[in-house]
Amino acid sequence: MRDDFSALCGITEEELLTQLKPDIERMAEANDETYEEACLHLKRQYDGYHFSKACADIYNPFSLFNAFNSKEYKNYWFSTGTPTFLIDILRHADFDVRALEGVEATDEQFDAPTEQITSPIPVLYQSGYLTIKGYDRNFQIYRLAYPNGEVRKGFIESLLPSYVHLPAQNNTFYVVSFLRDLMKGDVESCLERTRSFFASIPNDLENKTEKHYQTIFYLLFRLMGQYVESEVKSSVGRADVVVQLQDVVYVFEFKYDGTPEEALAQIDSKQYAIPYRADGRRVVKIGVNFDSATRTIGGWKIAKAD
Q: DSSP secondary-structure letter at 164?
C-alpha cells in the first residue's frame, strides 16, 4: 500500500500506451474498432486497480495479455474459477451486496488478517474483487469498489444463482431478453419477462424479505453491464434502476407491496428523471409493484417524462 511499490503487480496506462501500443492496434483491427475505441474498451474491461492512496490506474496483466492473445474482450480472470467461498462469506454475514459499488473503510478494516473473518471486506479486497477507488485525507477513509467491468460482471454472475437458485444460463437468457425488449422499446414485454423470471424462482427460499428481493432486482439489472446504472444517486435520493440506451433512458422504481402509482410519484417527487432530460434522449418512467404474496411483479405503470 506504499505509492513507491503499488504499481509493481500490474500494467500502468503509460506502459500500455507505449510498450504495448502494437497489441492495441491489432486488437482494434480484429474488433473493427478505432485505436481510441480499443483503448477505452480495454480500460473499461481490465483497468481500475489501485493499491495505495496515490497509485495510478493498474491493468490486470493476466486478463490484458489473454485479451491480446485471443484478440477478444472476455472475462478471463473468472475463467480460473468461481469464488464460491466469497459468496458463502457474504451470505453468512448477511452483507448487502449492493454496497460493493462503494464501501468506505479504514485501512485497518480492509487490509487486515483474515484468520478470523467477521467482515467479508478484507477477503474481497485481498483477493482482488474490491480495490481502492478514493481516499478522504481529512477522515483517513478509503472508498473501495469493483476494479472494472470484468470483475463486476463476473462476480455478479456468480452471485445471482445463490440468490435465485436457478441455473446461470437461465439468468443470462433473461438478461439478454430484457435488453432486446428495451432496445425495441417494448417495455411491456420486458416487464412480463421480469414477472416470469421471479415466478420461476423456487418458493422454498428461506429468505423472503424485501431486502432479498431488492438484491435480486439489483443483480439482475446490473448484469446488463454498460447499459445499466442501478440505485442511481441524485441530490435528493436514488432511483432503483436506470437503463441508458442510445436514444432513450428508462427510469425504474420498484415498490414492495405498494402501487405503481406510488412508484411513479416517487420518481417525480425525487426528480430522478431530471438529470437525463438535457441530452435530448427520450425519458420513460416506469413504476412497478412487487407483490410479496405471489413473490413476483404485480402491476406496473409507464409514463413519459414531462
A: H
For the chain, list residues with pLDDT below 70.
80-82, 114-117, 166-169, 203-208, 226-237, 306
By C-alpha distance, which of 294, 222, 220, 300 is closest to 267?
A: 300
pLDDT score for 224: 75
Residues 152-200 pLDDT 10s: 888 888 888 877 776 666 777 788 888 899 889 999 999 998 888 888 8
- Give the model's pLDDT for residue 203: 67
Give 50-80 as a DSSP string.
--STTPPPEE-HHHHHHHHHHTS----GGGG
Q: What is the pLDDT of residue 207?
A: 55
Segment holding 29, helix H or strand E: helix 21-30
Q: Report the sign of the C-alpha dihedral through residues 85, 148, 130, 105, in that order.
A: negative
Q: What is the pLDDT of residue 229?
A: 67
**pTM exceeding the 0.90 threshold for the entire prediction:** no
Q: Give the angle 176-201-227 at the CA atoms, nearest 5°.
A: 25
CB-count exposure of residue 147 (10 Å: 0-12, 13-18, 19+): buried
Q: What count of residues does the chain have?
A: 306
> Of the candidates 214, 247, 213, 253, which has an alpha carbon nearest to the alpha carbon of residue 232?
253
Could you say which DSSP state residue 169 is in?
Answer: H
Q: Beta-carbon neighbour count of residue 97 at 10 Å?
A: 19
Contacts of 189 (CB under 8 A, 6+ apart): 181
β-pairing, 296-304 vs 103-105, is unpaired
Report d(CA 222, CA 218) in Å as an integer. 6
Residue 275 DSSP one-character state: G
Round to whole Å and give the CA distance between 33 and 235: 37
Q: Map residue 291 onto helix, strand or coil.
A: strand
